[in-house]
Amino acid sequence: MAEPVNNLIDLLLNDNIKALKPYESARRLFSGAGNKQQVWLNANESPFANDFTIDAERFNRYPDCQPPAVIDAYAAYAGIQPDQLLVSRGADEGIELLIRAFCTPGKDSVLICPPTYGMYAISAETCDVGIERAALNDDFSLNVDAIKAFKGKVNLVFICSPNNPTGTSVDKNQLLEVIEHFADSAIVVIDEAYIEFDKDNSWAAELTHYPNIAILRTLSKAFALAGLRCGFTLAQAPVIQALMKVIAPYPIPEPVAQIAAQALSSKGLVTLEQQVAVINQEKALLKSALAKFADVELVGDDKANFILFRTPQKSALMNHLVASGILIRDQSKQVNLDNCLRITVGNPEQNKQLLSEISRFFTLQTSTQEA
Protein backbone atom coordinates (compact mmCIF):
# COMPACT_ATOMS: atom_id res chain seq x y z
CA MET A 1 0.00 0.00 0.00
CA ALA A 2 2.93 2.32 0.67
CA GLU A 3 3.93 2.68 -2.99
CA PRO A 4 0.54 3.96 -4.29
CA VAL A 5 0.37 6.40 -1.37
CA ASN A 6 3.89 7.65 -2.09
CA ASN A 7 3.01 8.06 -5.77
CA LEU A 8 -0.08 10.09 -4.86
CA ILE A 9 1.88 12.33 -2.49
CA ASP A 10 4.54 12.86 -5.16
CA LEU A 11 1.84 13.75 -7.69
CA LEU A 12 0.04 16.23 -5.46
CA LEU A 13 2.97 17.79 -3.62
CA ASN A 14 3.81 21.37 -4.56
CA ASP A 15 7.08 21.51 -6.54
CA ASN A 16 8.28 24.30 -4.28
CA ILE A 17 7.79 22.12 -1.19
CA LYS A 18 9.50 19.14 -2.85
CA ALA A 19 12.69 21.18 -3.16
CA LEU A 20 12.43 22.74 0.29
CA LYS A 21 14.91 21.79 2.99
CA PRO A 22 13.40 22.12 6.50
CA TYR A 23 14.93 24.44 9.05
CA GLU A 24 17.44 22.46 11.10
CA SER A 25 16.22 23.37 14.56
CA ALA A 26 18.20 22.36 17.61
CA ARG A 27 15.57 19.76 18.49
CA ARG A 28 15.58 18.20 15.02
CA LEU A 29 19.36 17.94 14.99
CA PHE A 30 19.42 16.11 18.32
CA SER A 31 15.93 14.61 18.41
CA GLY A 32 17.23 11.35 19.85
CA ALA A 33 19.32 12.96 22.55
CA GLY A 34 16.61 14.29 24.84
CA ASN A 35 17.49 12.50 28.06
CA LYS A 36 17.99 14.22 31.38
CA GLN A 37 21.76 13.91 31.20
CA GLN A 38 22.07 16.29 28.24
CA VAL A 39 23.24 19.86 28.76
CA TRP A 40 21.28 21.86 26.19
CA LEU A 41 23.37 24.83 25.08
CA ASN A 42 22.45 24.82 21.39
CA ALA A 43 19.10 26.60 21.01
CA ASN A 44 19.59 29.96 22.76
CA GLU A 45 17.05 28.98 25.39
CA SER A 46 17.11 30.36 28.91
CA PRO A 47 18.61 28.02 31.52
CA PHE A 48 15.81 29.00 33.91
CA ALA A 49 12.41 27.35 34.30
CA ASN A 50 9.84 29.42 36.18
CA ASP A 51 6.60 28.34 37.86
CA PHE A 52 3.16 29.46 36.72
CA THR A 53 -0.44 28.66 37.62
CA ILE A 54 -3.17 27.53 35.23
CA ASP A 55 -6.94 27.97 35.55
CA ALA A 56 -8.80 25.32 33.51
CA GLU A 57 -12.20 26.97 33.81
CA ARG A 58 -12.23 28.20 30.17
CA PHE A 59 -10.64 25.18 28.50
CA ASN A 60 -14.01 24.18 27.02
CA ARG A 61 -14.17 27.46 25.08
CA TYR A 62 -12.23 28.67 22.07
CA PRO A 63 -9.61 31.21 23.15
CA ASP A 64 -9.46 34.88 22.22
CA CYS A 65 -7.67 35.47 18.94
CA GLN A 66 -5.74 38.33 20.57
CA PRO A 67 -6.02 37.88 24.37
CA PRO A 68 -6.53 41.37 25.88
CA ALA A 69 -4.54 40.55 29.04
CA VAL A 70 -1.52 39.60 26.92
CA ILE A 71 -1.88 42.42 24.40
CA ASP A 72 -2.29 45.11 27.05
CA ALA A 73 0.56 43.78 29.21
CA TYR A 74 3.03 43.47 26.35
CA ALA A 75 2.08 46.83 24.87
CA ALA A 76 2.78 48.42 28.26
CA TYR A 77 6.09 46.53 28.51
CA ALA A 78 7.18 47.61 25.02
CA GLY A 79 5.94 51.18 25.43
CA ILE A 80 3.51 51.07 22.49
CA GLN A 81 -0.25 51.17 21.93
CA PRO A 82 -2.31 47.94 21.96
CA ASP A 83 -3.39 48.49 18.34
CA GLN A 84 0.30 48.41 17.36
CA LEU A 85 0.69 44.82 18.52
CA LEU A 86 -0.13 41.30 17.37
CA VAL A 87 0.53 38.14 19.38
CA SER A 88 1.29 34.92 17.50
CA ARG A 89 2.67 31.41 17.83
CA GLY A 90 6.23 32.53 18.35
CA ALA A 91 8.00 35.20 16.33
CA ASP A 92 8.33 32.56 13.61
CA GLU A 93 4.63 32.88 12.85
CA GLY A 94 5.11 36.65 12.72
CA ILE A 95 7.69 36.14 9.97
CA GLU A 96 5.30 33.98 7.97
CA LEU A 97 2.36 36.33 8.45
CA LEU A 98 4.38 39.29 7.15
CA ILE A 99 5.40 37.31 4.08
CA ARG A 100 1.87 36.07 3.42
CA ALA A 101 0.34 39.52 3.88
CA PHE A 102 2.82 41.58 1.89
CA CYS A 103 4.25 39.23 -0.76
CA THR A 104 2.53 37.61 -3.75
CA PRO A 105 3.67 33.98 -4.28
CA GLY A 106 5.67 33.42 -7.42
CA LYS A 107 6.10 37.16 -7.96
CA ASP A 108 7.55 39.06 -5.00
CA SER A 109 10.79 38.70 -3.02
CA VAL A 110 12.27 39.42 0.40
CA LEU A 111 15.78 40.49 1.33
CA ILE A 112 17.91 38.84 4.02
CA CYS A 113 21.38 39.72 5.32
CA PRO A 114 23.38 36.56 6.04
CA PRO A 115 24.77 35.24 8.24
CA THR A 116 21.45 35.48 10.06
CA TYR A 117 18.43 33.58 11.36
CA GLY A 118 17.44 30.82 8.95
CA MET A 119 13.65 31.04 9.22
CA TYR A 120 13.37 34.16 7.05
CA ALA A 121 14.48 32.15 4.03
CA ILE A 122 12.57 29.00 5.00
CA SER A 123 9.30 30.91 5.41
CA ALA A 124 9.79 32.71 2.11
CA GLU A 125 10.53 29.46 0.28
CA THR A 126 7.49 27.80 1.84
CA CYS A 127 5.30 30.64 0.54
CA ASP A 128 6.92 30.53 -2.94
CA VAL A 129 8.41 33.97 -2.39
CA GLY A 130 11.84 34.85 -3.78
CA ILE A 131 14.90 35.49 -1.60
CA GLU A 132 17.52 38.12 -2.28
CA ARG A 133 20.69 38.38 -0.21
CA ALA A 134 22.95 41.24 0.86
CA ALA A 135 25.63 39.63 3.00
CA LEU A 136 26.90 41.43 6.07
CA ASN A 137 30.34 43.02 5.96
CA ASP A 138 33.30 41.13 7.38
CA ASP A 139 32.75 42.88 10.73
CA PHE A 140 29.05 41.82 10.56
CA SER A 141 27.81 45.38 10.08
CA LEU A 142 25.16 46.03 7.43
CA ASN A 143 26.34 46.44 3.87
CA VAL A 144 24.06 49.42 3.40
CA ASP A 145 24.95 50.07 -0.24
CA ALA A 146 24.24 46.46 -1.17
CA ILE A 147 20.92 46.55 0.68
CA LYS A 148 19.84 49.83 -0.94
CA ALA A 149 20.45 48.34 -4.40
CA PHE A 150 17.38 46.13 -3.89
CA LYS A 151 14.90 49.00 -3.74
CA GLY A 152 11.94 48.16 -5.95
CA LYS A 153 12.96 44.50 -6.04
CA VAL A 154 11.79 43.34 -2.59
CA ASN A 155 8.72 43.85 -0.41
CA LEU A 156 10.30 42.98 2.94
CA VAL A 157 13.81 43.57 4.31
CA PHE A 158 14.67 41.31 7.26
CA ILE A 159 17.31 42.64 9.67
CA CYS A 160 18.08 40.82 12.91
CA SER A 161 19.36 43.01 15.75
CA PRO A 162 20.90 41.66 17.91
CA ASN A 163 21.77 39.26 15.13
CA ASN A 164 21.67 35.49 15.47
CA PRO A 165 24.25 33.93 15.31
CA THR A 166 26.80 36.76 15.43
CA GLY A 167 25.53 38.50 18.58
CA THR A 168 26.05 41.87 16.93
CA SER A 169 23.74 44.87 17.18
CA VAL A 170 22.97 46.90 14.07
CA ASP A 171 24.16 50.49 14.13
CA LYS A 172 21.12 52.75 14.51
CA ASN A 173 22.28 55.22 11.89
CA GLN A 174 22.79 52.43 9.36
CA LEU A 175 19.37 50.99 10.10
CA LEU A 176 17.75 54.40 9.86
CA GLU A 177 19.34 54.89 6.43
CA VAL A 178 17.82 51.59 5.30
CA ILE A 179 14.39 52.38 6.75
CA GLU A 180 14.26 55.78 5.05
CA HIS A 181 15.56 54.38 1.75
CA PHE A 182 12.72 51.84 1.58
CA ALA A 183 10.07 54.22 3.00
CA ASP A 184 7.90 54.06 -0.12
CA SER A 185 8.67 50.54 -1.32
CA ALA A 186 9.22 47.94 1.42
CA ILE A 187 8.66 47.10 5.07
CA VAL A 188 11.86 46.78 7.10
CA VAL A 189 11.39 43.94 9.59
CA ILE A 190 13.62 44.31 12.65
CA ASP A 191 13.94 41.06 14.54
CA GLU A 192 14.45 41.92 18.23
CA ALA A 193 14.21 38.39 19.65
CA TYR A 194 17.22 39.12 21.88
CA ILE A 195 16.48 42.75 22.68
CA GLU A 196 16.36 42.20 26.46
CA PHE A 197 20.14 41.75 26.25
CA ASP A 198 20.54 45.00 24.28
CA LYS A 199 17.70 47.18 25.57
CA ASP A 200 19.09 50.54 24.45
CA ASN A 201 18.92 49.58 20.78
CA SER A 202 15.20 48.78 20.46
CA TRP A 203 13.18 50.47 17.73
CA ALA A 204 9.83 50.14 19.50
CA ALA A 205 9.79 53.83 20.45
CA GLU A 206 10.15 54.75 16.76
CA LEU A 207 7.03 52.97 15.50
CA THR A 208 5.02 56.19 15.40
CA HIS A 209 7.58 57.89 13.17
CA TYR A 210 8.17 55.12 10.60
CA PRO A 211 5.14 53.39 9.07
CA ASN A 212 7.33 50.96 7.11
CA ILE A 213 8.91 49.14 10.06
CA ALA A 214 7.74 46.01 11.81
CA ILE A 215 9.44 44.59 14.89
CA LEU A 216 9.52 40.94 15.91
CA ARG A 217 9.67 40.01 19.59
CA THR A 218 9.39 36.76 21.56
CA LEU A 219 9.01 35.26 25.03
CA SER A 220 11.33 32.39 24.04
CA LYS A 221 14.66 33.91 25.03
CA ALA A 222 15.05 36.22 28.03
CA PHE A 223 11.55 35.43 29.30
CA ALA A 224 12.52 31.73 29.53
CA LEU A 225 9.38 30.53 27.74
CA ALA A 226 10.62 28.82 24.56
CA GLY A 227 8.21 25.96 25.21
CA LEU A 228 5.26 28.36 25.23
CA ARG A 229 5.62 29.46 21.57
CA CYS A 230 4.50 33.03 22.09
CA GLY A 231 5.78 35.92 20.01
CA PHE A 232 4.79 39.42 18.95
CA THR A 233 4.81 41.70 15.93
CA LEU A 234 4.98 45.43 16.63
CA ALA A 235 3.99 47.87 13.88
CA GLN A 236 1.67 50.74 13.08
CA ALA A 237 -2.02 49.84 13.17
CA PRO A 238 -2.50 49.41 9.38
CA VAL A 239 0.22 46.74 9.30
CA ILE A 240 -1.29 44.94 12.29
CA GLN A 241 -4.74 45.07 10.66
CA ALA A 242 -3.29 43.47 7.52
CA LEU A 243 -1.71 40.66 9.54
CA MET A 244 -5.04 40.05 11.28
CA LYS A 245 -6.48 39.13 7.88
CA VAL A 246 -4.12 36.16 7.48
CA ILE A 247 -3.62 34.90 11.05
CA ALA A 248 -5.45 31.75 12.18
CA PRO A 249 -8.72 32.36 14.08
CA TYR A 250 -7.45 30.93 17.38
CA PRO A 251 -3.64 31.25 17.37
CA ILE A 252 -3.03 31.55 21.12
CA PRO A 253 -4.17 28.63 23.32
CA GLU A 254 -5.79 29.60 26.62
CA PRO A 255 -2.95 28.14 28.79
CA VAL A 256 -0.40 30.07 26.71
CA ALA A 257 -2.30 33.32 27.22
CA GLN A 258 -2.51 32.74 30.97
CA ILE A 259 1.21 32.03 31.33
CA ALA A 260 2.23 34.92 29.06
CA ALA A 261 0.15 37.35 31.11
CA GLN A 262 1.84 36.14 34.31
CA ALA A 263 5.29 36.49 32.74
CA LEU A 264 4.43 40.08 31.82
CA SER A 265 3.12 40.98 35.29
CA SER A 266 5.14 43.17 37.66
CA LYS A 267 6.45 40.07 39.42
CA GLY A 268 7.28 38.42 36.10
CA LEU A 269 9.23 41.44 34.87
CA VAL A 270 11.29 41.52 38.08
CA THR A 271 12.16 37.86 37.48
CA LEU A 272 13.09 38.70 33.90
CA GLU A 273 15.52 41.42 34.96
CA GLN A 274 17.12 39.21 37.60
CA GLN A 275 17.65 36.32 35.21
CA VAL A 276 18.99 38.51 32.42
CA ALA A 277 21.53 39.89 34.91
CA VAL A 278 22.67 36.37 35.81
CA ILE A 279 22.96 35.37 32.14
CA ASN A 280 24.99 38.51 31.35
CA GLN A 281 27.32 37.81 34.27
CA GLU A 282 27.80 34.20 33.18
CA LYS A 283 28.33 35.33 29.59
CA ALA A 284 31.19 37.59 30.64
CA LEU A 285 32.81 34.76 32.59
CA LEU A 286 32.45 32.38 29.64
CA LYS A 287 33.98 34.87 27.22
CA SER A 288 36.93 35.49 29.48
CA ALA A 289 37.55 31.76 29.93
CA LEU A 290 37.20 30.93 26.23
CA ALA A 291 39.59 33.70 25.22
CA LYS A 292 42.35 31.94 27.15
CA PHE A 293 42.36 28.90 24.86
CA ALA A 294 44.98 29.33 22.15
CA ASP A 295 42.86 27.67 19.45
CA VAL A 296 39.72 29.70 20.18
CA GLU A 297 38.89 33.01 18.50
CA LEU A 298 35.84 34.90 19.73
CA VAL A 299 33.69 36.04 16.81
CA GLY A 300 31.07 38.78 16.60
CA ASP A 301 29.73 40.40 19.77
CA ASP A 302 27.86 39.49 22.95
CA LYS A 303 24.57 41.42 22.67
CA ALA A 304 22.46 38.27 23.10
CA ASN A 305 22.50 35.16 25.29
CA PHE A 306 25.09 33.23 23.31
CA ILE A 307 28.75 33.31 22.31
CA LEU A 308 30.14 32.59 18.85
CA PHE A 309 33.70 31.40 18.42
CA ARG A 310 35.99 29.93 15.77
CA THR A 311 38.40 27.05 16.16
CA PRO A 312 40.31 25.03 13.55
CA GLN A 313 39.35 21.95 15.58
CA LYS A 314 35.65 22.69 15.24
CA SER A 315 34.44 19.21 14.26
CA ALA A 316 36.56 17.35 16.80
CA LEU A 317 35.52 19.69 19.61
CA MET A 318 31.87 19.44 18.64
CA ASN A 319 32.05 15.63 18.63
CA HIS A 320 33.82 15.62 21.99
CA LEU A 321 31.17 17.81 23.59
CA VAL A 322 28.28 15.78 22.16
CA ALA A 323 29.90 12.57 23.42
CA SER A 324 30.17 14.24 26.83
CA GLY A 325 26.45 15.11 26.80
CA ILE A 326 26.91 18.82 26.01
CA LEU A 327 25.06 20.09 22.95
CA ILE A 328 26.13 23.32 21.22
CA ARG A 329 25.43 24.57 17.68
CA ASP A 330 27.60 24.28 14.58
CA GLN A 331 27.30 27.51 12.55
CA SER A 332 30.07 26.80 10.05
CA LYS A 333 27.68 26.44 7.07
CA GLN A 334 26.76 30.11 7.26
CA VAL A 335 28.42 32.88 5.24
CA ASN A 336 31.78 33.98 6.72
CA LEU A 337 31.43 31.60 9.68
CA ASP A 338 33.90 28.88 8.73
CA ASN A 339 34.79 26.68 11.74
CA CYS A 340 32.39 28.58 13.99
CA LEU A 341 30.47 27.14 16.93
CA ARG A 342 27.79 28.88 19.00
CA ILE A 343 27.30 28.34 22.72
CA THR A 344 24.13 29.32 24.53
CA VAL A 345 24.89 30.73 27.97
CA GLY A 346 23.69 28.24 30.57
CA ASN A 347 23.46 28.36 34.33
CA PRO A 348 26.68 28.48 36.38
CA GLU A 349 26.86 24.69 36.78
CA GLN A 350 26.32 24.05 33.07
CA ASN A 351 28.90 26.64 32.07
CA LYS A 352 31.50 25.16 34.41
CA GLN A 353 30.82 21.72 32.95
CA LEU A 354 31.17 23.10 29.44
CA LEU A 355 34.48 24.84 30.16
CA SER A 356 35.79 21.74 31.91
CA GLU A 357 35.09 19.61 28.84
CA ILE A 358 36.57 22.18 26.44
CA SER A 359 39.69 22.32 28.60
CA ARG A 360 39.85 18.52 28.68
CA PHE A 361 39.52 18.39 24.90
CA PHE A 362 42.41 20.78 24.24
CA THR A 363 44.55 19.04 26.86
CA LEU A 364 43.94 15.68 25.16
CA GLN A 365 44.74 17.22 21.77
CA THR A 366 48.02 18.61 23.08
CA SER A 367 48.96 15.28 24.68
CA THR A 368 48.23 13.43 21.43
CA GLN A 369 50.33 15.83 19.40
CA GLU A 370 53.25 15.60 21.84
CA ALA A 371 53.09 11.81 21.82
TrEMBL record:
InterPro entries: Aminotrans_II_pyridoxalP_BS, Aminotransferase_I/II_large, HisP_aminotrans, PyrdxlP-dep_Trfase, PyrdxlP-dep_Trfase_major, PyrdxlP-dep_Trfase_small
Gene Ontology MF, one: histidinol-phosphate transaminase activity
Essential cofactor(s): pyridoxal 5'-phosphate
Pathway(s) where this gene product acts: Amino-acid biosynthesis; L-histidine biosynthesis; L-histidine from 5-phospho-alpha-D-ribose 1-diphosphate: step 7/9
Chemical reaction(s) catalysed: L-histidinol phosphate + 2-oxoglutarate = 3-(imidazol-4-yl)-2-oxopropyl phosphate + L-glutamate
Domain Aminotransferase class I/classII large: residue ranges: 42-358
EC number: 2.6.1.9
UniProt enzyme class: transferase
Positions of post-translational N6-(pyridoxal phosphate)lysine modification: 221
Pfam families: Aminotran_1_2
Keywords, in A-Z order: Amino-acid biosynthesis, Aminotransferase, Histidine biosynthesis, Pyridoxal phosphate, Transferase
Family: Belongs to the class-II pyridoxal-phosphate-dependent aminotransferase family. Histidinol-phosphate aminotransferase subfamily.
Subunit description: Homodimer.
Cross-referenced HAMAP family: HisC_aminotrans_2
Identification of the protein by name: Histidinol-phosphate aminotransferase
